[in-house]
Amino acid sequence: MVESIPKSGGPVAAEVLQDLAAASRVLFTQGVVDGYGHVSMRHPQAPQRFLMSRALAPALVTPADIIEYDLASSPCNAEGRGSFFERFIHGEIYVARPDIMAVVHSHSPSVIPFGLVNVPMQAMFHNAAFIAAGVPVFDIREKFGATDMLCGNTPKAAALAAVMGKRDIVLMRAHGAVACGSTLQLAVFRAVYTEINARIQHWTMALGAGAAPAALDAEEGRLADVVNEVAARRAWEFWRGQVRAQVNW
Questions:
Q1: 76, 111, 175, 229: most buried by Cβ count inside 10 Å?
Q2: What is the pTM of this model?
Q3: Given 3-state DSSP classes, what are the helix, strand and coil percentages for the chain, each rounded to the nearest 5?
């Protein structure tokens, strides 16, 4: 039996595809992803579809590599291009959270330890204000036992989305993290500052010899994040400009 190909949500502006490809490269230059990791965005005209690169190292992504998917994470226009095994993370978050417009999955090294020990990640400074709402940890073995640690199907990815809940970040034990946003630019901003915040927390804990840091509380985080949702555009324009200077699209 031949699988039916999902219908496309319609054409996407070249500038949108360029920004999504640039986001992948920005995440690489900022040390959030390396040869692995991926970023997606919801289709601008069709909320039941999302856009994501073919399986490719993030620093190599171009607009021509972008594939459209339905929310079951089935490709609409793969045309022989391979898909990321963990694309289901993106699809199930879009299903669970209609307010989310972009998703970043990474394995940034400073973040991983917080999914391995009983030390919660806290918002160390205002740029990471969203962390003050709490950072849950998804432990895949709690529901699925011993696995390859990858959310490579709908049930595993749905379980991850459920643990994330209404927050905009979730850690994955012994794997990595997911950061989300109401725009592509904000999701990239949050992914970058999750990694930076993790480094600062490591340093702070070392300096304080285990003393509790004077991190942002929930209300401070809420207030600062309102400002960051606008300020993230400034960082994006700088990062996007760096990519633009290196490519001809």
A1: 111
A2: 0.96
A3: 45, 15, 45
Segments forming the whole domain that contains residue 89:
33-244
Q: How far apart are CA 186 and CA 236, in angstroms?
A: 8
**Overall size of the chain counted in residues:** 249
Q: Is the dihedral of CA 78, 176, 221, 96 positive or negative?
A: positive
- What is the percent of the chain with per-residue pLDDT over 90, rounded to a whole number? 96
Active site residue 220: no
Given the residues 68, 86, 92, 195, the one annotated as active site? 86
> Is residue 7 a part of any domain in this protein?
no
Q: What's the half-sphere exposure (Cβ side, CA atoms, 13 Å) at 107?
A: 10
- Give the pLDDT confidence of 126-175 residue by residue, as tens digits: 999 999 999 999 999 999 999 999 999 999 999 999 999 999 999 999 99
**18 within some domain:** no
